[in-house]
Amino acid sequence: MNPYNYLYLAGILFTIGAIGVVVRRNAIVVFMCVELMLNAANLSFVTFSRINGTLDGQVTAFFTMVVAACEVVVGLAIIVAIYRSRRSASVDDASLLKR
Amino acid sequence: MIIQTPEAVMFWILAPLSVIAALGMLLVKKAVHSALLLAWVMITLAIFYIAQEALFLGIVQIVVYTGAVMMLFLFILMLVGVDASDSLKETIPGLRPIAITAAIGFGGLLTALIGRATLGRDAVGLADANAAGNVQGLAALLFSDYVWPFEVISALLITAAMGAMVLAHHQRTVARPSQRQSSIARFRSGSLSTAAGLPGPGVFARHNAVDVPALLPDGTPAPTSISATLKARGDMLESGQFQLDVVDTTVAEEK
Amino acid sequence: MNTSSSIVYLIALPLFGAVALLLGGRRTDKWGHLLATAMSAGSFAVGIYQLMQMLGRSTEERAITQTLFSWISVGSFDIDAALLLDQLSICFVLLITGVGTLIHIYSISYMEHDENRRRFFAYLNLFIASMLLLVLGNSYLNLYVGWEGVGLASYLLIGFWNQKPAYATASKKAFVMNRVGDMGLSFAIMIAFATLGTTTFAGVAEASHHASEAALTAIGIMLVIAAAGKSAQFPLQAWLGDAMAGPTPVSALIHAATMVTAGVYLIVRSNFIFDAAPTAQLIVVIVGAITLIFGALIGTAKDDIKKALAASTMSQIGYMILGAGLGPAGYAFAIMHLLTHGFFKAGMFLGAGSVMHGMNDEVNMRKYGNLRKFMPITFVTFGLGYLAIIGVPPFAGFYSKDLLIETAFDAGGIKGPILGSITLLGAAITAFYMTRVMILTFTSKARWDENTHPHESPWLMWMPMAVLAVGSVTTGFLFTRGDALVNWLNPVFGDHGDHHSEHLFEPIVVSMMALTAVAIGVAIAFFKYQRADIPAVAPTQVSFFTRFARKDLGQDGFNEAVFMRPGQKLTSLLVKSDDRVVDGAVRGVGRLAISSGSWLRLSQTGFARSYAAFILIGAVALIAGIWVVTQ
Asked: How far apart are CA A19 and CA C371, in angstroms?
């Protein structure tokens, strides 16, 4: 088996995450799908680092993780704020930018 | 480099499991179930990281991602409403087919590209890079080549924390009523029944369980003494079953 | 060639008069007419002076030029504003200023009761100045300026009483048909410059010796079109009858003596072109012959005295054009007929004006009759003009017309007898309708309306008529005594052999034939009109031919059907296509922007998920693109 199989897996996970972002309506579930996509990217970084024999990929994956953590913090705070004012966690209800 | 058999076996067991978990995360109705399935995917990924000699990263994945981030998700889910479940019926017309088609196209393209792509050499493996240890290797890179992004990331973390504080800040639009003002309000309200304030916790309690309501003087359960959730779920118990036996406290005639 | 510095005064005086009266406005109303007449007379005096000077010089030195300023200097196109005064132009100068001054004097009295008299005189002066520029220009381009100027003055004068819509329309019709002719002159100038490299008369004459016949034929045909437009020849003749809407002095000056002769001047001046292009010459002759008969036929059916005289003008100019098309032999005779015609036709028009003045501006001859008793001076002057035009010796028309008929017969080949017969026929018809005019107006029984008190005109009006009548009597004799005019004009046309080639008929035979034709015409008219009773209202039970002639031989109908209606259709088609296609395209762009905007707006659903779907699709497209590019 060669390491490229991990890349295939990462691709599949990314795709599933992409579908989830578009299909699900609960804001938090959408967020979780975004997290899944980030994780898939991380997996591919680590695999590339192994293939290339350098640790740069792992450093990048590390940074990605930190950024993802920050993003989760701020994003969930936003969701909570919206929920407080609108009493609804559905992504479709925040459609005031409609034409 | 060819991956050894043990790792291959592990991969071929865990990879389909993670895919199924991801699909399940997509398809289940309750959000909490999605969160748990995602946690499983993340653990699987941590195992993969460790298998690929990214030891530090694997541990960090469990501690930070699964431990902190997913728990944060679960907290927010609790806050927002655990029973808030999506109906899986699509409201925007045509979105689901488009999304599935696009995503399958995306996935197909990715797979094809990965299949065609090579990095121009065989996989090297991290034996040399990890010679001094994975953590030491990472540290060497992090504080030399990547020190500038490192500093920026720390600034980002601080900014994110401040952002969360700002967003969660509940600005009072009116001043908090002082004690005098709340007392005046109590006496000016419609009924004077609560003018003297509500009784403290436990005054009317019959039992010390959270799902046993307190009984008001007229024998009805007090609505504010039990969580509405429990009541709505039908987990509220009858106080009657905890009624104490009447203790004979009549004093015997002393002969 | 000698240069002079005084030629310009010929033009400058009337031009000053026109400008002064137009700019001066109402302040000049009291003495405007006198100033204009003085300017015209002054121009005549300068003309006489120039003639005296010219007579004193030897033949080679008679022509003089004056360069005023360099007008256009662009690349190889170098035109000066310059004047040329030679034997031909001096004839025209004297005709224009002489007859013009007489008509100015006449108009002082004729337009006495018109409040816009000053403006009328300004336009008259403008006309004189432009016509003089036309005949004095030394190049086709300078001539063109005068050409346009007389067209403008004609428009202003025909439509002088433009309160009446019919008169305004008539002036517009004249101007538009003139414009068609002007196109011909423009093309001629352009072709001349393109093929010969010059537009001055001297330059073109020089270059015509080496130029190709095709180029010269093209120029010639364009010049014929120009002449037809200005001189009311077939096919551009329809405007002359309607031009009688203007005051009678205008008809006398412009549409009898001067402007309509500009076409003849143009052709005669361009003799070097026509002599080298026989095809063009043939066209000239054909145009002249057709118009000759056309005008005569129309004249027989007109009851309006001015329109009858206009038709007569058309016919007489046909004679001149025919003469001009007969080559070197005919140029001088065409000019001679032009000069004599100027006298007697102007005199007759002024007489018609006098009759109208006495008959309350009535123009219908059926309402006239027996005016001989009441307007004797008018009768005499008009009668002398009448005798001149029909060609009774020894009056002017006899000499000039007979020489033209003789030259027509001598044209050679099959052309000669045909042209000669046409001219004889024309003479007969002319005699017929002019006699009809005389009888209906002067000698028949009175058929007046009530309250008509015909009276003789004041002396300011009959004095010019008398002078012109003297000219009608004497000029013919004077011009032919010793071949005076022919010899005078010979240097202009180049020495083209002698005119005494063999004649088809002896001159005396031709005169006999002409007089016979005239006598027949007079007799028919006499029996039809003098002996019989003339109905006061035009009879409607007339032959088809009479009706056709009353309708000007269908000229308006033809013009409308062939030119006007298709032109209108083309205009409306262009307007519609401009609106639908051009404006439609512009509007369509706007509509396209709006519709594409409202279609694109549909993507703003407000749903974050649809936006996410778009992102996904975009990502797919990007990756596919990268794959294709790195293929």
From this structure: 113
Mark whether C292 and C422 lie in a shared domain. Answer: yes
The verdict on a CB contact (< 8 Å) between A92 and C616 is no
pLDDT at C264: 92
- Write the residue in B92, B98, B109 that is nearest to C624 by C-beta: B109
Contact B1 A8 (CB under 8 A): no
Residue C83 phi, psi dihedral angles, 5° rounding: -115, 145
Are C133 and C141 in contact, with CB atoms under 8 Å apart? no
The pLDDT tens digits of the residues spanning B30-85 come to 888 999 999 999 999 999 999 999 999 999 999 999 999 999 999 998 888 765 55
- Per the structure, the count of domains in chain C is 2
Q: Are C482 and C543 in the same domain?
A: yes
**Which residue in the set A11, A25, A51 is minimally distant from B124, CB to CB?**
A51
Give B163's contacts in chain A (Cβ within 8 Å): 73-74, 77
Give A-chain residues touching B25 at CB under 8 angstroms: 16, 20, 29, 32-33, 36
B35, B73, B157: residue with CB nearest A66: B157
Q: Is C229 exposed, middle or buried (0-12, 13-18, 19+ CB in 10 A)?
A: buried
CB contact under 8 Å between C620 and B102, yes or no, is yes
Torsion sign, CA atoms A41, A44, A50, A56 = negative
Q: Spell out the per-residue pLDDT of chain B, length 255, in tens.
A: 677 889 999 999 999 999 999 999 998 888 889 999 999 999 999 999 999 999 999 999 999 999 999 999 999 988 887 655 566 677 777 788 888 899 899 999 988 888 887 766 777 777 777 778 889 999 999 999 999 999 999 999 999 999 998 888 877 788 888 989 888 888 888 777 777 777 787 888 888 888 888 888 888 888 788 888 887 888 888 877 777 777 777 887 765
Q: With CB atoms and an 8 Å threshold, state whether B102 touches C610.
A: no
> Is C76 a domain residue?
no
Q: How far is B102 from chain C (nearest CA, A)?
A: 6
Contact C623 B98 (CB under 8 A): no
Inter-chain contact C610–B105, Cβ cutoff 8 Å? no
Q: Give the three-state DSSP class for C84.
A: strand
What pTM value is reported for the model?
0.67
Domains in chain B with CATH codes: 1-83 (1.20.120.1200), 126-166 (no CATH), 198-254 (no CATH)
Chains contacting chain B through 3 or more C-beta pairs under 8 A: A, C
Provide CATH code, domain A4-87.
1.10.287.3510
- Do C397 and C391 form a contact (C-beta atoms < 8 A)? yes
- Does C432 share its domain with C455? yes
Interface of C with B in 579-608 (CB under 8 A): 605, 607
Q: Which domain holds residue C626?
A: 558-630
C492 & C615 share domain: no
What's the distance, CA C517 to chain centroid? 28
- C320 and C468 housed in the same domain: yes
Which CA distances in Å does A58 have to A52, B52, B92, B128, C561? 11, 11, 40, 15, 93
- Collapsing DSSP to helix, strand or coil, B221 comes out as strand
Same-domain status, C527 and C622 = no
To the nearest whole Å, the CA of B67 is away from the closest chain A CA by 11
